[in-house]
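Milestone M4 deliverable, item 7.
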Amino acid sequence: MDIEFVDLIAASGVKLLVAGDDDQSVYSFRFASPSGIQNFPAKYPQAGLHTLSDCFRCTPDVLSAGSSVLNAFSPPGRIPKGLASLHVGANPPLNGIVHRWRLNSGPAESRAVAQSCADLIAAGVSADDIIILLSDSKLLGGPTVSALAAASVPSTGPGFSRYPDTQGGRFCYELIRIICDPNDYFAHRVLLGLPTGVGPTTCLQVTDVVINNNLNYQSIFYVPPSQGILNKRGLAALTRAQNTCLAINGWQATDQIQTRQSDLANLIASEINQTEAQAWLQLAATLPAGMTLEELKELWRADSEEEEAVMSRVYSRLDLSGVVSTQPVASRVRVMTMHKAKGLSAKVVFIPGLEEEVLPGPWRRPYQGLVLEAARLLYVLITRVRAACVISYAGGRTVYGSWNYHTPSRFASYLNGSFSARTGSLSAPETVAISAECSHL
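Output delivered:
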C-alpha cells in the first residue's frame, strides 16, 4: 500500500526524494519487503541515483563485522554496498572493538553482561551510552533485567514486564483509548480479540463481514449489524465487545483512577480473568489517586525514557509536594527488543542470545526469506554500535521450565572472528580499552 501511494504521488507529477536501504528491511511482519527500494530504479529509470558510501556512525571493525554477515547471506537483487567508516580518519584513529563470547548457560551470560555494564559505568561510560538488544524478550528479558538489578545497574526495561503488555493490561489500555477517543478504530479492533476465547479467525470473520457489506467498523460496536451476516461465533464475540463498550459509555478522559479502578477491575475479571483484574488493582494502588484516565493513557503509551516526564507532570498538576525530584533523572542502561533499536545508536551495545534456537529461531528457520531477514536484523543491531560491541551466545537455557542445550547461530561464523569461551564479564584491561574508545568519539 505504501508503494502504491508513492506511485500515485509520482504519477501526479510531484518531485520525490526516496531514501532507503534494503539491508535494513526487517519488518516483514508488517509486510515490508526490500524489493521496494531494490526495484525503484527499474520502475523509475529517469530518477537520479545517489548511493551513500560513508558510514558516519560505526567504527571500522564494527562495520566490518556487520557487513560480513550480510555478504554471507545476501538475497538475490541486493543493492551492492561499499560502505566505509569515516572514523578511519579520526585523530586518534578509531577502529572500534568487537568481542565475541561463548558462555556455558543463559544465567552465566546474563551475569557477564550485567557485570560488564557495571564495570563500564564505574570506568566512566555513561549508562545512557549502553544498550542491550534482545532478539527474544520473553526468553532473554527477565534474566537480563534481574542480572542488572543484582549488579546494581540502573536500567529501563523493554516492556515485557510492563502491565500494558499483559492480556489484562492491553484490555484495560484499549478501554481507556476508546474512552479518550471513541473514534479510535484500532482500539476497537484490539478490544474485539482480547477477551478469553476469541481468536484471530473470529476477528477476521467480523472484518470480512464489515468489508463485504460496506459497513463502518467502529459503528458495529454500537449498532448491531443486520441479522444473519455473522456466524454464531462472530456474533458472540461482537456482542461481548458491544457490552463492554456499553459499560464504559459516559466515561470521560478526565475521570480519575480512584473513581474507575473498581469498574475497570470488574470488566477485566469478566472478559479476561480474575487474576488479571487483581493485577490491575495492585498497579492502580501504586498510582496517584487523582491521576486521570487520559494521563494513564499517556503514561502507558510513553517510551521508558518518557515515563518519568509524564509522572512529573501528573505530580505537578496534583501539587504533590516532595514527590517530584528536582534532581536530574539518573542515566540508565537501555534494554530493548531488536526491532525497537532501529534508528538508535549507542557507544556500547550488547547482543546476547546469538543461538540458532533464538536467531533465526524455530519459526524463521523453515523459510529462507525469513532467515535472510534475520541476517539483516543482526546487521541492523551491530550497526547501532559506535565504539564497542559484545556479541554472545550460551550453551543452554531454561525454556518453559526445561533445560535445553543450544547451538551457536549460523550467523556466528560470519562475524570476522571466533567466539572465545568466557566465564565472566569484561576484564579490567578490556573495560579500560572500551572506556578509552568511547571517550575519543
